[in-house]
Design brief:
This protein has helices spanning 4-15, 43-50, 80-88, 113-116, 138-146, 150-155; strands at residues 23-28, 60-65, 70-74, 105-107, 132-136, 159-163, 170-173, 176-180, 183-185, 187-189, 192-196. The chain has 202 residues and is of the alpha/beta class. The chain has a single domain (20-196), classed as Ribonuclease Z/Hydroxyacylglutathione hydrolase-like (Metallo-beta-lactamase, Chain A, 4-Layer Sandwich), CATH 3.60.15. The protein has a six-stranded mixed β-sheet. Strands 7-8-11 form a three-stranded antiparallel β-sheet, with no helix packed on it. It has a two-stranded antiparallel sheet with strand order 9-10. A hairpin with a 1-residue loop joins strand 9 and strand 10 (187-189).
Length: 202
Amino acid sequence: MKLLVPVLLLATVAFGPEPPSPRVVVLGTVQDGGMPQIGCDCSRCSRARKDPKLARHVASLAIHVPKTGHVYLVDATPDLPAQIEEIHGFRPHPEGKVDRAPVDGVLLTHAHIGHYLGLAWFGFESLNTKDIPVWTSPRMAEYLRANGPWSQLVRIGNVALREFQPGTPFSLEEGITVKPFQVPHRDSCVPFLPSHAPSAET
C-alpha cells in the first residue's frame, strides 16, 4: 500500500489530467435585431434600454475545444464585437494588441441579417483577419463571392470559404464533426449538429 501512492503520483505527473470535453457556449439568444431591437418600444425593449443587464445579444454559439484551445463560431452576428469579448474570457488571445484571429472558424446557417452581417468585422477596416475558414452551403458561398462587401472579404483573403452539402458531415478538427441538415425557414437554412469522438489518447 505504501508503494501505491508514489505510483499514482507518478502517473498523474506523467499523463496529467485529461482536458475538459468540448462544449457549446451560448453567446446570444434573441432574434436578428437583438434586444432592445431598433425602433421597438415594447415593454421588454423599453426595460432593456433602461437596464443594460436586460439586453440580449443576437443568437449565436461557440464550439469550444479545450484540448486545442480552438473556438468555432456558429453564425457571425451584428453583435460580434461583444461576442468576441465573451470568447476572450475563455480563449487565449494576444494582450495589448488586436486579436486578428479571434476564432478558428465560422459556420453559417443562412443569409438572414442576424447570421452573417458580423462577417464585416473580419474585414480590412476592422480585424483584418487572414483566411479564417467560413463553412457555408454552396448557395450561400455563391452569394458571398458575388456581392459586396462580402466579396472583398473573399478576394483579399480575410475569410476562406469552405462549402458543405446538407446531410453530409464534415470535420472541424480531429475528433470534432459537424452534420449540417436542411430545415424550412422562409429560405434555405442549415442548422448544425456537432459531435465529439474522443481520440485513442483520451
